[in-house]
Design brief:
about 160 residues, alpha+beta, Glucose Permease (Domain IIA), 10-stranded antiparallel sheet, 2 helices, 12 strands, globular
Length: about 160
């Protein structure tokens, strides 16, 4: 029963925040999607990769608080953001980290720039969305926000 309530809460949160989420970068090419992929064997890819030139600005998908920044051999330079305590977004392979732990951020805050650090095959941003620690397809979560922005832009013309 608890799992069903948790799943229902995840769905409600996704629907409620779906209109608030935006892609972390402007433009670029989706170079790898969420799901099974074959890279040094069969592995599950927990996020989406968007290829862009090094130095392109990276912004949070929605408002939140920077929870962690750093470097690892696999992630390269990375930033992790908490949204409403149960949702986390992660941005990896950054060239620069332009934010600090505890900083409050929103859609317009540049948290870093696209890079080629860590285990990376070229300049891109890897980003993940997790709800209660469970990775979800980030591009699907941003679709309502993209559709809303597209319709809003049409009305502004």
């Amino acid at each position: 029963m608890f799992q069903n309530k948790r799943l229902l809460l995840i769905i409600v949160i996704i629907l409620a925040l779906g209109f608030l989420l935006r892609p972390p970068v402007s433009g670029g090419r989706l170079s790898s999607v969420y799901g099974i992929r074959f890279f040094a064997g069969r592995v599950f890819h927990n996020g989406s990769d968007i290829a862009l030139p090094v130095g392109s600005p990276v912004k949070p998908v929605t408002w939140g608080t920077i929870k962690e920044t750093g470097f690892t051999d696999s992630k390269g330079n990375y930033v992790s953001i908490s949204h409403l305590s149960v949702i986390q977004s992660h941005y990896m392979h950054l060239d620069t980290i332009d934010s600090s732990v505890g900083q409050k951020v929103n859609h317009s805050t540049v948290i870093g720039t696209v890079g080629n650090t860590g285990l990376s095959t070229g300049p891109h941003i890897h980003y993940e969305i997790r709800v209660f620690g469970v990775p979800l397809p980030p591009y699907l979560l941003c679709l309502p926000g993209i559709a809303f922005k597209f319709v809003a832009d049409l009305f502004q013309r």
